[in-house]
What we know:
Region (Disordered): 664-687, 737-764
Bound molecules: 2-acetamido-2-deoxy-beta-D-glucopyranose
Strand order of the largest sheet: 1-28-27-26-25
Structural class: alpha+beta
Organism: Triplophysa rosa (Cave loach)
Shape: elongated
Largest sheet: 5 strands, mixed
CATH topology of the domain at 543-621: Immunoglobulin-like
Family: Belongs to the semaphorin family.
CATH architecture of the domain at 543-621: Sandwich
Keywords: Disulfide bond, Glycoprotein, Membrane, Signal, Transmembrane, Transmembrane helix
Domain Sema: 26-479
Strand content: 25-35%
Oligomer: single chain
Amino acid sequence: xxxxxxxxxxxxxxxxxxxxxxxxxxxxxxxxxxxxxxxxxxxxxxxxxxxxxxxxxxxxxxxxxxxxxxxxxxxxxxxxxxxxxxxxxxxxxxxxxxxxxxxxxxxxxxxxxxxxxxxxxxxxxxxxxxxxxxxxxxxxxxxxxxxxxxxxxxxxxxxxxxxxxxxxxxxxxxxxxxxxxxxxxxxxxxxxxxxxxxxxxxxxxxxxxxxxxxxxxxxxxxxxxxxxxxxxxxxxxxxxxxxxxxxxxxxxxxxxxxxxxxxxxxxxxxxxxxxxxxxxxxxxxxxxxxxxxxxxxxxxxxxxxxxxxxxxxxxxxxxxxxxxxxxxxxxxxxxxxxxxxxxxxxxxxxxxxxxxxxxxxxxxxxxxxxxxxxxxxxxxxxxxxxxxxxxxxxxxxxxxxxxxxxxxxxxxxxxxxxxxxxxxxxxxxxxxxxxxxxxxxxxxxxxxxxxxxxxxxxxxxxxxxxxxxxxxxxxxxxxxxxxxxxxxxxxxxxxxxxxxxxxxxxxxxxxxxxxxxxxxxxxxxxxxxxxxxxxxxxxxxxxxxxxxxxxxxxxxxxxxxxxxxxxxxxxxxxxxxxxxxxxxxxxxxxxxxxxxxxxxxxxxxxxxxxxxxxxxxxxxxxxxxxxxxxxxxxxxxxxxxxxxxxxxxxxxxxxxxxxxxxxxxxxxxxxxxxxxxxxxxxxxxxxxxxxxxxxxxxxxxxxxxxxxxxxxxxxxxxxxxxxxxxxxxxxxxxxxxxxxxxxxxxxxxxxxxxxxxxxxxxxx
Length: 764
Ligand SMILES: *[C@@H]1O[C@H](CO)[C@@H](O)[C@H](O)[C@H]1NC(C)=O
Ligand SMILES: *[C@@H]1O[C@H](CO)[C@@H](O)[C@H](O)[C@H]1NC(C)=O
Ligand SMILES: *[C@@H]1O[C@H](CO)[C@@H](O)[C@H](O)[C@H]1NC(C)=O
Ligand SMILES: *[C@@H]1O[C@H](CO)[C@@H](O)[C@H](O)[C@H]1NC(C)=O
Ligand SMILES: *[C@@H]1O[C@H](CO)[C@@H](O)[C@H](O)[C@H]1NC(C)=O
Ligand SMILES: *[C@@H]1O[C@H](CO)[C@@H](O)[C@H](O)[C@H]1NC(C)=O
């Protein structure tokens, strides 16, 4: 109990800390699904479901997709078109299907979900599917999926389940796989398809080798001759009742040269070792549950190869929390060559110094029985692997990140930046650049609307696209779209290492070696420094004139595309529009009632990274006298303080709707109406007097007219009230059944209302 309380208090404290970092993770620009500016291409077919297992050809022109009951190859070489090239239909055998339908909880699981799809060699693919709980594998030529091939039983190599996670890597035509292998969810790490005299290997059955693992990912480290596997499992290093089910994230290794021991550990891994991955900053909350991890190779110095993992905490107050940590291969090697823990016969962990440094090395399969007997029980490293720099690369209290891709690219000034692509559980892709100052989320793009149980993400650096596989289809997202930034300021403020401003052609364009001298400032987004020409010539938007009646409520919309910009409304003399009598909406709109005091020119100014620009400029005026109108207009309005700003008020033709749709925010309807246009929506709440005053000359007499109409209305209302009371009492007397009373009442209300409106109309 004390333990749980401690953790809870701790969590509260840490969440508070993380909150302050939250602003830095807010995406600068957001593109909803279907946005034309940030076009996605989609492969979707009504006959192909669960397109979740993805494999990209080395030239990135073909995407292989493992779906339910089929393997597809898609032509992704066209920039805005994904087409089906080839398809292997692969349904479960009838026997399996019948058996499955009896035993399975849901008939939906009784399909052949393709869960492994890998290149066996340069010409052939290895695929395996769940086959209605009877996993099968197949080897097929990549360029003709339909070619007839034998299907093989794949019991120890391929997942049973359509949803449990698994991972597989093929090295030299041998398959290293980590998966659940039976109906009861047994878990194995094995080598299948072993060549020549080499043994197929599995993990020994010693306790604690694996404890309810969830396999996340695996990768071949050729410089070490090892496969690294990443997974989570239940930890048991704590005696406390509460933390018994504490999840730990792991990196494990097996060597590709392993062939199992001679007498001890026959046909078992002799090179298996595991270590803990800790995604934690100092002593703060640990993000202990690994969700996805990817490798960023460093060919020049392999030890600097980095593994970027996205983690979530096991316990959190709000469900949406995640963090990204990077681990270096060098640190992982240090952990595996250091001290170990032995799980002895007394069911206790004890320390093993690894004095001869054999543990964690490859080649032990050829060693003596006594060494292998030690290996058998000594597989957990004493020291955990901590993130590079002992810190989180980013964390978010709002978003539950579940998949990621990573890329290092060269910016216009030649400096290299790391970009993360993070898929949120809610279906958005966030693009984040890691800067010295911290992460900056350049944009978010909505990929799918429904949360997905199974989804995968792969990046093609050469084609600069991301593919997302989900049950809704395969979606291709270009990593950048510089043309969405219309001017130099926007292009520089985006701080997108892909995009720079080409001042010669006046476009925001993709950075490449053939286009030097692009204006870009990824670190600071300093517009004044980068866009001197632009700033000298930019005039800002033209002032739009709005005409409105006295007492109208006007709404001036102002939307900055950037969600990081601070938006303020200002008068033409640059003073800030006050809180009262104005209403500043959260979405940037300014709302106020038109009075002689509020007739003015308003500018919506956004400020971001020290750069100010006017987004809209609106001059709110009262209607001007139409010349043809015969009314004398010599009198001054009587409630005028600033006569320059207020035009004299004259009746205007009833049908003249003062509408202006030249808003920069397209698609959003602005409501600008006179009092007579009653069907124009909620933004206009006219004073009821307006309609009455239309036909009366507004000058000194206007109050009289208002009073008369007010009295008239009051009398009508009073009559209606009395009438409804009488009716209500009448109906009470007639009908005592309460169930029927309510609808009747509301019906009569409606009748009165329409009658009221009818009566009002002629008076205007
Ligand atoms: C397969 O796709 C369907 C919708 O097409 C979805 O309801 C189901 O959850 C998916 N199953 C898996 C295992 O992804
Ligand atoms: C997509 O590609 C096919 C075949 O290459 C072509 O017929 C079709 O017109 C293309 N569609 C679009 C929208 O480009
Ligand atoms: C790839 O493997 C397949 C199946 O084992 C084999 O038929 C083919 O010759 C191999 N191709 C190459 C280039 O080694
Ligand atoms: C295994 O050890 C023997 C001698 O102990 C040696 O001859 C042989 O080459 C070793 N095999 C491997 C694969 O290292
Ligand atoms: C801004 O919010 C106000 C009130 O919440 C709403 O009336 C208005 O339509 C919104 N404007 C835009 C452009 O979303
Ligand atoms: C932008 O650069 C200019 C000139 O180098 C400098 O004076 C200014 O302080 C910078 N602005 C910001 C916000 O860093």
